[in-house]
Design goal:
It is built from nine helices and eight strands. By secondary structure, it is α+β, with helices and mostly antiparallel strands. A hairpin with a 5-residue loop joins strand 6 and strand 7. Helix 3 packs across helix 5. It is elongated and about 225 Å long.
């Protein structure tokens, strides 16, 4: 092996020192680059922090898109973090009222009318948020509420006359709109629930409106007249019922009085009959007693007592035979008693 001379060693030293300086410079450059990257990362993180932190309000759920694709995951109300490449949108899942304004339509007779405002109270069910947004997007209510209301109102107007739309069937439009929208939502978008529909009175041409007002006034007057007639008939019926009731009351009173008088007459007749029977019985008993008591001996005694009590004095040549001939009187009395006994 050949030995290096002192001159060749002196030429190799500068080459080694040049290589060491290049390595140090490379390390320093890498370190500075790392520090720059870290600084840029920290700075960018501070700038992106507000977009990564977001809030979901109460009554809403958070939905997210990444690269234009809707994510199935949703978040509840509160603060949440997302990446810088993820888009966020709050979706209401409580009751909300959509106002559909200025809806023109033509009736069956060709009259153009305009519904100034129709309010639709609706709700998106939380469990159907992903399915509804995938099929119809965030503006799902434009498809199933705003556009649907326009369609259903025009369908209703085209199949009914102005009289029916403005007066006769106006109270049914709310329910018909709700049923029509809900039926299609159940079929194509089951997550949308229609709570109620409120339809305002449509605007109609001024001349037709005046005619309707005149018709309504005449109808009101007719109803008032009919009401007056009904009240008069009711009053007459009431008076008739009062008169019938009064007559029935008088009849009942007369019947009661007649029955009372009949009872009094029956009581009087019964009392008189009882008195007559008692009097007859008394007379019969007196007759029987007199028959037993009026014997010839008793009559002769009474005759003698009567003669004896007579204080009259008779003067003359001849005394009356009735007084002197007592035997003749006794015979008469005996004959009378015998005849009376035989008659009894």
């Amino acid at each position: 092996m050949a030995m290096d001379t002192p001159q060749s060693q002196q030429k190799a030293r500068p080459r080694q020192s040049h290589q060491g300086g290049s390595l140090f410079f490379a390390i320093l450059s890498a370190l500075l680059l790392f520090i720059a990257i870290v600084a840029m990362t920290v700075l960018s993180s501070k700038q992106l922090w507000p977009s990564m932190l977001h809030q979901v309000p109460e009554g809403y759920v958070g939905v997210y898109w990444r690269g234009g694709a809707l994510l199935k995951a949703t978040t509840e109300p509160g603060y949440h973090l997302k990446s810088s490449i993820t888009e966020f949108e709050p979706i209401q899942v409580t009751l909300q009222t959509d106002q559909v304004k200025d809806i023109p339509c033509g009736t069956k007779g060709g009259v153009m009318i305009n519904f100034e405002k129709i309010e639709v109270v609706n709700r998106l069910r939380k469990e159907y948020v992903y399915e509804t947004l995938v099929n119809y997007g965030v503006k799902y209510d434009k498809t199933w509420i705003y556009d649907k209301i326009h369609h259903e109102i025009n369908q209703f107007c085209s199949s009914h006359t102005l009289q029916e739309v403005y007066i006769d069937m106006f109270d049914q439009i709310d329910d018909k709109m709700k049923e029509a929208i809900q039926a299609d939502c159940i079929r194509y978008a089951p997550g949308i629930e229609i709570i109620s529909v409120r339809v305002t009175k449509p605007s109609i041409p001024e001349s037709i409106r005046r005619n309707f007002e005149q018709m309504e006034e005449e109808r009101t007057n007719a109803l008032i007249a009919m009401e007056h007639q009904r009240v008069a008939e009711k009053e007459a019926e009431t008076l008739k019922k009062i008169a019938i009731s009064e007559a029935e009351k008088n009849s009942q009173v007369s019947k009661i009085l007649m029955q009372q008088r009949l009872m009094e007459n029956e009581m009087f007749m019964a009392r008189e009959k009882s008195l007559a029977d008692a009097n007859f019985y008394r007379v019969m008993k007196e007759a029987e007693a007199n028959k037993l008591k009026l014997s010839p001996q008793f009559l002769e005694l009474k005759f003698i007592e009567a003669i004896a009590s007579n204080t009259k004095i008779f003067f003359g040549n001849k005394i009356a035979h009735m007084v002197s001939d007592q035997r003749l009187l006794g015979n008469f009395l005996q004959n009378f008693a015998a005849k009376d006994y035989s008659d009894g």
